[in-house]
Specification:
Layout lengths: L2 H5 L15 E3 L9 E4 L12 H6 L4 E4 L8 E3 L3 H12 L8 E6 L4 H14 L4 E4 L3 E5 L2 E4 L7 H13 L4 E5 L2 H5 L10 E4 L13 H9 L8 E4 L3 H10 L5 E4 L5 E8 L4 E7 L2 E7 L4 H16 L4 H9 L9 E6 L2 E6 L4 H14 L4 E5 L10 H11 L2 E4 L9 H8 L10 E3 L3 H10 L6 E5 L6 E3 L4 E3 L2 H16 L1
Parallel strand pairs: 1-2, 2-3, 3-4, 5-9, 5-10, 6-9, 10-11, 11-12, 17-21, 18-19, 18-21, 19-20
Antiparallel strand pairs: 6-7, 7-8, 13-14, 14-15, 16-17, 22-23
Helix pairs in contact: 3-5, 4-9, 4-10, 9-10, 11-12, 12-13, 14-15
Length: 482
């Protein structure tokens, strides 16, 4: 592809030379000869300050928002949007040849996306997945995920590989960061799903309203929408979108609802009601939040033209999602679960769920991520303190932030915990302490990291698979008993 072809859609009068383009990037370190370098302003830097470096590396053209004083540049009002559209064009717009479904919201995105992708496969469609746990590209290809919603260059590269592997559908999580940063510009979604909204990422978004507006941006790119009609922000979104595109609300008293819900330690059962239709559902995942995720997934499939019974059966054939109320081991009467819950709201929900089937004590290991919203730390600690019999506060992904600061921020939430609480900085030691102090009937919940098999420290990222660590601890316990 040459420059003229690349810019043909966003520059109608395109008189650029037919210079060959090798890549499109907003990272000056990734520039190679023939690259188009897009200057993007971010929270940690400004690409306009690295134009000289990009030119030295052989950039064929610079896309900027302000005049860089060089001949081979093009100016755009929004270089983030230009970057997304250029990446799509470079790969030949693969997303336009597949049906896209996007899920946004604070909690439930990952599980809902996983359920929808699984259901589509069960219904005979080749479906790719882009999300927090991994990226499924079809043909058995699975890649680890660095971000919930990738950078446009990576995103459209993934779309391209999915198309080559025969995918006809793609299910993806749409994060507020990605929507705010215009990473999805140029994509069109058959259905957008809104799960819920609670305070999160307020280290990035100025306030809750800005966070909501970022999420709401998705629905300007959608042909239909499925919205949580119980959530106050979902209700607001419904009012804003009514009359503009086909809508389906889900939740108690909504167009799609769950009735006669029965919750068990390993599943939830209910009857789904949609108009005059109803269908029994049994999902092998516990908790009220699993009911909400099931409704969201089925609503998305209904909006894509599938029937109620086939949608429910396809979703309910899923046996679980990695790192979402997942059993690591159940031995000697002790059960260890891991879950990705890392917000006050998600912690409350998973703790209330586990408490519902815990026969002994509930022991919780949790931490607060570094370089993330500090306001939620005492709220997370409070949610755990109010629901756990024993709790251990430890490191999550501290990144470059001192653990002492993270613990100090969270500590007000532990007031009144007394001897029920421990602070153990090393996460492996914290897990070992929790298991070592458990007894038959107890449940140990490892909260915050879920499926992650790494831990981000100040100067490096280390391997840290909690499921593997738990197995090692239990193996040592068995050895010690011999």
């Amino acid at each position: 592809m040459n420059l003229r072809q690349l810019f043909s859609e966003i520059l109608p009068d395109n008189r650029l030379p037919e210079t060959q383009v090798t890549s499109v990037t907003c990272d000056s370190r990734q520039v190679q000869r023939g690259s188009v370098f897009v200057c993007v302003r971010g929270s940690r830097g400004d690409g306009h300050n690295h134009v000289a470096q990009a030119l030295e590396r052989g950039a064929a053209l610079v896309v900027a928002q302000t005049d860089c004083g060089i001949p081979n540049q093009l100016l755009f009002a929004d270089t983030r949007e230009a970057y997304s559209r250029l990446c799509a064009a470079f790969f030949g717009h693969p997303a336009n040849r597949m049906r896209l479904i996007a899920i946004t919201g604070t909690n439930g995105k990952t599980t809902t996306a996983w359920l929808v992708q699984h259901a589509l496969e069960q219904l005979g469609h080749k479906a790719g997945l882009i999300g927090t746990i991994c990226n499924k590209l079809g043909a058995g290809q699975v890649l680890p995920a660095r971000y919930t919603t990738p950078d446009p260059w990576e995103l459209h590269g993934l779309f391209s590989r999915m198309l080559q592997n025969g995918c006809t559908e793609v299910v993806m999580e749409a994060s507020s960061h990605a929507l705010e940063q215009r990473r999805l510009e140029g994509c069109r979604f058959a259905c957008g799903v809104f799960t819920n909204l609670s305070p999160e990422h307020l280290d990035y978004h100025p306030d809750l309203e800005s966070y909501f507006q970022a999420k709401a941006r998705l629905f300007s790119m959608c042909d239909t929408a499925a919205l949580n009609g119980v959530d106050v922000h979902g209700q607001r979104l419904y009012r804003q979108l009514e009359g503009k595109l086909p809508l389906l609300s889900f939740g108690e008293g909504q167009q799609l609802s769950a009735q006669g819900v029965r919750l068990y330690a390993d599943r939830c059962e209910m009857t789904l009601v949609y108009g005059q239709q109803n269908c029994h559902a049994c999902l092998r995942m516990p908790g009220q939040f699993s009911v909400e995720n099931l409704l969201a997934a089925v609503a998305a499939l209904l909006q894509c033209g599938f029937k109620l019974e086939e949608s429910v059966n396809a979703v309910c054939s899923c046996q679980g999602v990695p790192g979402r109320t997942e059993v690591c081991i159940s031995q000697d009467g002790i059960t260890v679960l891991r879950d990705y819950a890392h917000t006050p709201d998600s912690l409350q929900k998973v703790l209330d769920t586990v408490r519902g089937f815990c026969e002994g004590r509930l022991i919780v290991v949790f931490g607060c991520p570094g370089r993330r919203d500090r306001q939620k730390r005492p709220l997370m600690a409070k949610a755990v303190c109010e629901r756990a019999d024993l709790l251990v506060m430890t490191a999550d992904n501290p990144r470059e932030e001192p653990l002492e600061q993270i613990f100090a921020d969270a500590m007000p939430g532990l007031s009144g915990a007394g001897r029920r609480a421990r602070v153990i900085a090393d996460r492996r030691d914290a897990i070992s302490w929790a298991i070592g102090n458990s007894r038959a009937g107890d449940i140990v919940l490892l909260a915050g990291k879920g499926h992650e098999d790494y831990q981000v420290l100040e100067d490096r990222t280390i391997c840290f698979d909690e499921k593997e660590i738990v197995m090692q601890i239990f193996s040592q316990r068995c050895a010690d008993k011999r």
